[in-house]
Amino acid sequence: MKIDRIETFLVAPRWLFCRVQTDDGLVGWGEPVVEGRAEVVRAAVDTLAELLIGEDPLRIEHHWQVLTKGGFYRGGPVLSSAVAGLDQALWDIAGQAYGAPVHALLGGPVRDRVRIYAWIGGDDPSEIGEQAAAQVAAGMTAVKMNASGRLSPIPTSAEVDAVVSRVAAAREALGEHRDIAVDFHGRAGSAAVRRILPEIAPLRPFFAEEPVLPDQAHRLHDIVTCSPVPIATGERLYGRAEFLAPLQAGVAVVQPDLSHAGGISEVRRIAALAETHGAVLAPHCPLGPISLAASLQVALATPNFLIQEQSIGIHYNQGSELLDYLVDPAPFAFVDGHINRLDAPGLGITVDEAAVRRADATGHAWRNPVWRHDDGSFAEW
Ligand SMILES: [Mg+2]
Fold first, then answer.
1. Which ranges carry the Mandelate racemase/muconate lactonizing enzyme C-terminal domain (predicted)?
2. H or E stretch including 272?
3. Cβ–Cβ < 8 Å for 158, 195
4. What angle do CA 128, 130, 133 make, to 5 degrees?
5. Catalytic residue among 103, 284, 338, 364
6. Is residue 368 part of a domain?
7. Residue 366 counted as domain residue
8. Which of 196, 256, 307, 381 is the most exposed, fewest CB within 10 Å of its CB?
9. How many Å separate Cα 325 from the centre of its chain?
10. Cα(344) to centroid(ligand 1), Å
11. Centre of ligand 1 from the C-alpha of residue 235, in Å
12. Residue 156: helix, strand or coil by DSSP?
């Protein structure tokens, strides 16, 4: 069996899919994308495809090594995301070739279902409360919310109060037996986070995410020691080496993205590295169905897995939805805040190829917003 064709598809709302075909008719799907840079990753996939055409798709680890290290300049979001999508597609092909779901090839399931969380939005505490209550009604056992919108470098008293009252509104709606994760999105900076975290700690957040940007990882140890709230990070880290310093600083939760951090192959290794530091895995996934399926396969086979992000039905998926690209959405059905084990071969989903080709004919040009402070200077999004 040889790989004979690799294609990419730019599909709404902001995704890129890849399709890897073999000469005996197997097709694997992957999702190689950096949100806002999809066209750039597409070019990277086209270049890396030269290394795969004519090769045996079942040599996944060998291909991962060559794709990742076969250029003198390595790593970073674009190249690591291109490798990630191709890696997902190769695992999808392997599963079909062996007649087994990917988690079986990773050693077999260590759990029967995967706990998921839903996003809640809104700026006003009453909006937060309403959305949290809606997720409770839908059976969710955990939600995630942004700590704040745009934030001053040293937050004002009013800004601190706003964060506390929003988290408090979520806690009130969720009760004491469900979890709230709070995402700082790297907007705050270390001083701001050290002021805010002790204030929200009595509300017992599940974890505080991206308290600082990845380039301030050297401040993570200070943040870990300032508050009892567990610290999470990793959606903007692209390989196991980049997770070592945050883990040594004491982060409790690592959040590699299956479409950014080298795919299934590398996220498994990141999970193992986290395990040696007593940390747990909660993969980042605001992306499409292929990335979510890859995340679930890893979750099913990884002992130190905590919870899975997903964006089904979320407000920011405008123009198209995650389930629009599946022949059958049933594998992603929510049951009591969980997704049941995916047992079909490969990634466990059937991509609607006709829908993907139609969407690619339109494409998209999604870009993340650029925010400004009141004085016109740049603000982190
Ligand atoms: Mg985040």
1. 125-230
2. helix 263-275
3. no
4. 105
5. 284
6. no
7. no
8. 381
9. 18
10. 30
11. 7
12. coil
- State if pTM tops 0.90: yes
One domain for residues 43 and 139? no
Q: Are residues 18 and 158 in the same domain?
A: no
User: How many angstroms is it from 228 CA to the middle of ligand 1?
Assistant: 20
CA–CA distance from 138 to each of 61, 63, 135, 304, 342 (Å)?
40, 42, 5, 26, 21
Is residue 358 situated within a structural domain? no
Regions of the chain short of the pLDDT cut 50: none
| Structure token pair of residue 95 | 């599963």
Per-residue model confidence (pLDDT) at position 251: 98
Q: Given CA atoms 52, 56, 61, 66 in this order, what sign does their dihedral have?
A: negative
Q: In degrees rounded to 5, what are phi and psi of residue 40?
A: -70, -40
Pick the last residue of a domain from 59, 74, 100. 100
Question: pLDDT at position 26, please?
Answer: 98
Query: How much is the pLDDT for 298?
Result: 98
The DSSP string of 31-69 is: ----TT-HHHHHHHHHHHHTTTTTS-TT-HHHHHHHHHH
Query: Tell me, what's the pLDDT at 124?
Result: 81
User: What's the 311 CA to ligand 1 centre distance in angstroms?
Assistant: 12
To the query of whether residue 315 is one of the catalytic residues in this protein, the response is: no
